[in-house]
Specification:
The complex is a heterodimer. By secondary structure, chain A is α/β, with parallel strands linked by helices. Chain A has seven helices and seven strands; from the N terminus they run E-H-E-H-E-H-E-H-E-H-E-H-H-E. Chain A has a single domain, classed as 3-Layer(aba) Sandwich (Rossmann fold), CATH 3.40.50. Chain A is globular, with a radius of gyration of 17 Å. Chain B has a single domain, classed as NAD(P)-binding Rossmann-like Domain (Rossmann fold, 3-Layer(aba) Sandwich). The chains are: A alpha/beta, B alpha/beta. At the A-B interface, helix 4 and helix 5 of A face helix 3 and helix 4 of B.
């Protein structure tokens, strides 16, 4: 186990089929005690906590809306009090939305910017301040997306929010490297998570076949495959890897044709 | 003498900034009818400019809609846009205030989105072609420590422009992003170590607002009809070079 005794916070971790659950599961398998955060899906979150505990880890469920600064601060305070100071932080919570550029409305704009960018920023900054103060280094991993290199039609705001996170990771990596803190982002391709259920391009068998045809590996990713990449970035093996972007997309971006 | 923007109607947001003003002047000289949107600050900068000046907070879609309606009424239907409004808050990652980040995103990204939406909708309704340019920054392409909220907003702008390009191409509309480097301005004087900025710029000099305007003008012209979804730096090479002396940003937050 590469992460024995460490405490991790994973946001957006509750939902079945979700990337966050895959991350939390893999970190726990590597030895982390885990704060399972989500703003909803409490039942699924509690079930995940139970499973992590059965696997021998300490785990707590914490409901917090990452777009609310004070809720993020409370989450880190509680994590430190109940599990110990988190040194592995995964800013994974995110939402998607589909609207043509000319039709994007204020509601979608606010939801995506609040949760993806402001939420990601809140989690990373609160985490980083704690790590800097403690002076023992740390690992921050942000879930971005293939969109940072390959944006999709009808997802202008989503893609933009992920590019914003990319710029934040770059800035944070440079600034935090002297403190022994690495900051990286992972770019999942298609995962069959609930976030993608409303996708207009995944509603029929033909849609799914067309999406699969874009992916050289010919399949969607398992959330655990994202989780294992995050576990690597959180490990000592990746101590010199910072400001990096690790795609886990079955070749989607390079196979674009 | 016929100008290459004769018969065109252009809107420039952020028209009181050095780049916005240079863009407006360039387009007017090339024969376009030009309207500038501004936030009311530094309105004196608009003196002598051959343009219709309208006050609007670009982050508010209703104000942008009202302004564009007035432009259409007074100058004709808009076919060209340069969205240059920027809040430009600075700060290190650790010190960035959430409120500054939010305002950067609202002015730079929501502002560009509002302008794109309102111009593109009218173009699509009329079945008319159009040219859209979003002003970005090299800070959105490479790391410039100390410019965290600005960099986040400008990186978002680039992706917004690319998706707009993808979606609007079928309607004969192009959308490109101009990533400006260090330009002389009051902002630069206040917040940037000029020596470090020049040391990190292979061309060894600042980029004049007129040079940024010239690229915008090219992208609005018929010559650029095949350029779409591009993010083009005009930065003297800053985006490809390493800054030897550290970040040129000297004022934090």
């Amino acid at each position: 186990m590469r992460l024995a005794g460490k405490v991790a916070v994973v946001t957006g971790a509750a939902r079945e089929r979700g990337i966050g659950r895959g991350i939390a599961t893999c970190l726990a398998e590597e030895g982390c005690d885990v704060v399972v955060n989500d703003h909803s899906a409490e039942e699924e979150g509690l079930e995940l906590v139970e499973r992590l505990r059965e696997g021998g880890r300490r785990a707590i469920w914490h409901r917090a809306d990452v777009s609310k600064r004070e809720q993020v601060e409370e989450m880190f305070e509680r994590a430190a009090a109940e599990l110990g100071r988190p040194t592995v932080v995964c800013a994974n919570a995110g939402v998607a939305g589909w609207q043509p550029v000319v039709e994007v409305d204020g509601e979608q704009w606010r939801r995506l910017v609040d949760i993806n960018v402001i939420g990601g920023f809140n989690v990373c900054q609160v985490a980083a301040r704690g790590m800097v103060e403690a002076g023992e280094g740390g690992r921050i991993v942000v879930t971005s997306s293939v969109h940072v290199q390959m944006p999709f039609a009808e997802m202008a705001v989503y893609g933009a929010t992920k590019s914003g996170l990319r710029a934040m990771v770059d800035a944070a990596a440079v600034e935090l490297a002297p403190h022994g803190i690495t900051v990286n982002h992972v770019g999942p391709g298609w995962v069959k998570s609930a976030i993608n259920d409303p996708s207009p391009s995944l509603q029929t068998e033909e849609d799914v076949a067309a999406t699969l045809a874009m992916i050289p590996a010919g399949r969607a990713a398992d959330p655990r495959e994202i989780g294992m990449a995050v576990a690597y970035l959180a490990s000592e093996d990746a101590a010199y890897v910072t400001g990096e972007y690790l795609r886990i997309d079955g070749g989607l971006v390079v196979g674009k044709h | 003498m016929a100008g290459r923007m004769d018969g065109r109607v252009a809107v420039v947001s952020g028209g009181t900034g050095p780049i916005g003003r240079a863009v407006a002047a360039n387009l007017a000289e090339a024969g376009a009818k030009v309207a500038v949107l501004h936030d009311g600050a530094d309105a004196g900068e608009l003196e002598g400019l051959d343009a219709l000046a309208l006050r609007a907070d670009v982050a508010d879609p209703e104000q942008v809609a009202a302004a564009l309606g007035e432009v259409a009424e007074r100058l004709g239907e808009v076919d060209s846009l340069v969205a240059a409004a920027s809040h430009r808050a600075l700060g290190s990652f650790l010190e960035t205030r959430e409120a500054d980040l939010r305002r950067c995103i609202e002015v730079d990204v929501r502002g560009a989105l509002n302008c794109v939406q309102l111009v593109a909708r009218r173009l699509l309704e009329r079945g008319a072609p159009g040219r859209l340019v979003l002003l970005g920054s090299v800070a959105g392409l490479r790391t410039v420590p100390g410019s965290c909220p600005h960099a986040i907003a400008r990186a978002m702008t680039a992706t917004l422009g690319q998706v707009a390009a993808m979606e609007l191409a079928a309607g004969g509309i192009t959308c490109n992003v101009v990533a400006a480097g260090w330009t002389p301005s009051g902002f630069l004087d206040r917040h940037v170590d000029r020596e470090l900025a020049l040391a990190a710029t292979p061309s060894g000099r600042l980029v004049e607002p007129d040079e940024v305007a010239a690229l915008c003008a090219f992208l609005l012209s018929d010559d650029a009809a095949a350029v779409n979804g591009a993010v083009i730096p005009v930065d003297g090479g800053y985006s490809i070079a390493k800054a030897p002396g550290g970040s040129p940003i000297r004022t934090r937050s």
